[in-house]
Amino acid sequence: MEEKKRNSFAGSIGFVLAAAGSAVGLGNIWRFPYLAAKDGGGLFLLIYLILAVTFGYTLLTTEISIGRKTKQSPLTAYGVLNKKWNFLGVLACLVPFIILPYYAVIGGWVVKYFVAFLTGHGAEAATDGFFNGFISGGTLVDNYSGASGIFGQYESVAYMAIFMIATSLIIILGVNGGIEKFSMILMPILFLLVIGIAIFSLTIKGQAPDGVTRTGLQGLKVFLIPDFESITVKSFFTTVIDAMGQLFYSLSVAMGIMIAYGSYVKDEANLVKSVNQIEFFDTMVAVLSGVMIIPAVIVFMGPDGMSGGPSLMFVSLPKIFAAMGPVGNVVGALFFAMVLFAALTSSMSILEAIVSSLIDKFKLPRKAATIVESVIALILAVIVCLGYNKNALFFNIKLPNGSDAQILDIMDYLSNNITMPIVAIFTCILVGWVVKPKTIIDEAEKGGYKMGRKLLYKVMIRFVAPIMLIFLLLISLGIIKLD
Ligand code: PHE
After folding, report:
1. Does ligand 1 come within 6 angstroms of the Cβ of 358?
2. pLDDT digits (tens, 9 = 90+) for 238-279
3. Confidence label for 145 from pLDDT (cuts 50, 70 and 90)
4. CA 107 to CA 124: how far, in whole Å?
5. Ligand 1 within 6 A of CB of 308
6. CA-proximal residue: ligand 1, atom 6 (nearest)
7. Which residues, 6+ apart, have CB-to-CB distance to 476 below 8 Å?
8. pLDDT category, 396, cuts 50, 70, 90?
9. Which residue's CA is the nearest one to ligand 1's atom 9?
10. Distance from residue 388's CA to the centre of ligand 1 (Å)
11. Residue whose CA is closest, atom 10 of ligand 1?
């Protein structure tokens, strides 16, 4: 049989935008700002930037180079570098397999909020109990109206399915016709929206429940200026660990995605430059999200508003849009459209990591591979949704640290806190000590491009990164306690 030519991105802009699309996601928009606020703003920002150009740079260069060198998807790529390391491919594919179902559930939440604001129901979306009512199909709150919901108890299932099916359709269209094309359209719109909303956020002025009137610029200070006086050794370490965990998740490394995308990059392309651009976009969107969200929260909710933590995006932000009056529906719709694009380009990449693996390993046609994995993810995602529904499968357990956990939280913990650090540690060992950093550096420099931070790369991949990652893993597992 004639060997089919591997798909590839037509241009390096397409690749950069697709990879940035994967990297820019809920992590940037929702997780980064609340971590920054929690860890004292400016200091977090500073540490994050330093880690991005050292630790992040190392991991991203490594994965994209492995992909391009082996021209294989994650499942088989590690085995090509060294036969004994096939197991790492299985482990790396496990991460997107676990993440996809719950990412689709959150994607569905975003679609729901987008629709609510677009149809002028923003005020309703801002009421107490709306979020819980929505995810539980009304079974956790008494008077949930569903904000014009037509799917009743299964509202969250329906929206998840819409998001999942959209993701699958794009992946069926392939690397060029799907991923690259959609990234080229969605990412520039996303950048414009982020910049526009960030500027808007700086111009607002309003009164918080504490009665104080503040401006957006005052809120910005909380985000940007480090409060050096209140830093303690412990808070410094917490900040470093938070920044590292965030960076790792934000760049979409340690789950095979960047290997899959790297395998579609042409040999002539300048890898070093692409890596820098991807990092730049990812970091810029994270920082701008802080500019977009933190001032708005401070103005409308006061300094305590930031303690909303994870619920910030679905609970606090709608309140802020509602407090803006009629214009809030428009700003809210634009905001959630932007979040939706960010989530969609990320979920595409998660699905692609698995689909490309099924294609390479089992020689399945793309369409069949996509349908198989999408159906599995859809079924798991329905279970995740129904875990919140008292009349269906209500599910609530306590995690070892005492917090309440849902199926979604458990999947998130398993993938992000345990499997991803393990994959990254093994990748560092494989590259640093078995196949040697030179293999990656040569690949990155293919075509005569110079890689600038070579010595840094070698030291990072062999020593610093694995040690930091082991530390991160031990903290995640609760073996080392920071407090
Ligand atoms: N990197 C994405 C973000 O910052 C999240 C993501 C996780 C994307 C897993 C793909 C896979 O939100």
Report:
1. no
2. 888 889 889 988 999 999 999 999 999 999 999 999 999 999
3. low
4. 20
5. no
6. 252
7. 417, 418, 421
8. low
9. 252
10. 23
11. 346
